[in-house]
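Let's do one together. I've listed all components of the complex below, 855 residues spread over three lines.
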Amino acid sequence: MTTAALDVHDLVKRFGGLVALDGVAFSAAQGDVLGIIGVNGAGKTTLMNCICGIYRPDAGAIRLGGQDVTGWAPHDIAHRGVGRTFQVPRVFRRMSLIDNLLVPVLKHKAADRALIESAEAMLERMRLIDLRHNFAEELSGGQQKLLEMARMLMPDPQVVMLDEPFAGVHPTLCRFMIEQIETMAAAHKTVLLISHDLTSIYRLSKRVLALNQGRVIAEGGVDAIRGNPDVIEAYLGA
Amino acid sequence: MTAGASSRAADRERGDRIYFTLAALLGSGVILYFASVPLLGGNLAFHFYLMLWITMASGFNVSSGFSGYMPFGYVAFYGVGAFTTAILVKKVGFPVLAALPISGLAGLVLALLFAPTLRLSGIYFAIVSLALAAICRLVITNMPETITGGSFGLQLGSHAEPVLSFYVMMVVMLAALGTILWLSRSRLGKALRAVRDDAEAADMMGINITRVRLYGWLIAAVFPALCGGVEAWYTNVVDTETAFNTLITAKTVIYAVAGGLGTVAGPIVGAIAMVWLDELIWRQFPLLNLLILGLATVLLVLFLPRGIVGSLLRWRPGWRRYVP
Amino acid sequence: MEILVLNGIVNGLVVGGVYALIGMSLTLLYGVLRVVNFAHGEMVIGGSFLAYVLFHVAGIPPLLALPIAAIAFFGLGYVAYYLLIPRLDRSDDPESMSFLMMYGVSIALAALMLLLFEADSRSIDYTFSPISMKIGPIYVSTARIVALGVTIVVSAAVGLFLFATLPGKALRAAIMNREAIQIMGVDIIRLSAFAFALATGLAGITGVLVALVFPAFNAFSGPEYSIIGFIVIVLGGLGNPVGALLAGVLYGLVEQLATVFLPQALAQIVGFGLLVAVILLRNAGFVRWRIGR
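Okay, and this is what the predicted structure of the assembly comes out as:
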């Protein structure tokens, strides 16, 4: 049995009296695209925050390729090959687009010139190349989301987490993002995708995880989830 | 390489050329100007302090513009540097040129001691920094008179060498400018700015924010310490009132902000503009000096918050990669 | 020894009361406007100078100077707000810019006072009769008792205002959530102006009390009170007026009792050291995301 790319085991996270995650467990193999759905407050973003190290879980374990990374600092987890984007873009506002992309690869041994060239190539792929010297704060919201995606991909992470990439984004741009995500999947990355846009979720995901009140209420293939009565009741409306 | 990539590479090379040419022009202009002052009989004191303020503002720029920390107790490093040199020269008998690097070291040690405060966010950091500087001053004031000279301070004895100390100040200033030039293009500089903009996100992008912040902080601490040491040599006297004067932090901050934080040229432009203004005002209205400094700060924040260079770059953002 | 300690306690309460007022006005300012008022000490000293001028020029006793200072400073605060603050919100780093601006204001105010009053220390030669009163085994100067009384009254008034009146509750709500209160239809600009004026007015009153409680002051006394103000608001929690009250009294007690046992300068170091220790140990002000780490 091959080791899962990402393995989450009985994760618990509390904030004071609020239990945000109540024993979440799932596995994702390499190349899996796992859609994560749930109402607001279900624990989706908290889950991602735990996996990337921002929050330390109160109980449970997180394993990357078999290695236990629970409680690791975020930068160590990043170096282990995890990348993410955010619901509200967190670009480095007073740095140029190129510099934004260089940040995740600053520790790479390659020469400056090679890194800059690959950053430019990435910007070209994301159609942001003409703005490469602009400060990130000068970009529109949608462009910032693209920038985040580009920045995330720079160190070629094996596990990729996208938190509502389509939120508030123009449909044309959405389609472009979907293409990018499909490319990531084709490159055998493990993709976790949080979204309320069910059409995109169903199109992109191999499997879907439904969360409600910090627990996994259903997990399975797209069709199974669509028909799952618990999911329908909790999320889609009874 | 695709056509696009190679034209971008050419563009990049052109940009780098312009950047380094401007930097070289700035550097050589600065060197020629200041080096000639003693030779041509110019006002030594005025130019000495101008260099001092350029250095102080540049050091502050590393902390504030690059790292995002406003140490309102910045004078602590200056005072510690001044006293280290004075004590080593007067009480231990070191030659000044040997004492100065140790002053720099003292600044580093103090910075390490204060390093835990780097965890703090904006306002808490500023306040704690102020309190720590006050503690430094109080501790030194209350050390035995045999060590720190009590309220009379220390005199370095017959070691005053105005011209030599002038040139040493110039060396220190150039070291500061060179460091910032390097920092602004280096990977550490990018890491610092990422941490400044969004520390949490930088962490998730693989930056060890604690370590990066520490490096920035250490760099920012060395130069005021050296300034304190050289100034002690130049004026030949050190006492807690002048070495820990809060006006030193005030001027540093104002001059740095006046020029614009985040570029190499900013502190230079700001220091020159403000020192020149200060001199002008002082000659005409010696009593209003301090008042005008305060008002100038308020006006700066209200109308030119990004400083002279910063506002210029805001107006012409495309110039950002050309201006050092 | 007991007498010294008792003295320490009483003085601690008196001094602590003044510190508490400084802290309360400073924390209101930060809580509502998110402005760190580096010029607060200078404003307080301005109040002291006003009391001095009123007494030595017009023969007005300090107790009468209190309402005059309150009103004058309240008005000045209103004007200052509209001159200085609205532009700040539009800059890209309001917090840092507010530090810098108030830094400039503090220098300008100190310079102004220096110009008007020169560098000499001043004190008010007003004597109450009797000069001091006997409380138990110790003598306490009447001026200090009066000051303590005023402090209690003013604190109670501020407390009543904040908790029992509508504008006061609006202020507290603004401290808790600036954005939400605007959605509720509150004009945040007018509320902020009011908060600024209130804080300045309180600073003016505190200045008069400083003149009564402390032996002397001069144009450069400001920073010392600013630092104390910062210590108090950090100990009490930024934006927490009740916390500032308690912290101010506590800090006053600690400081005065420390001077009973330690030399003056060491006592000061203890005070600052306390601040540093509390900030570092308490996690207050740590980058907020370190929840659960």
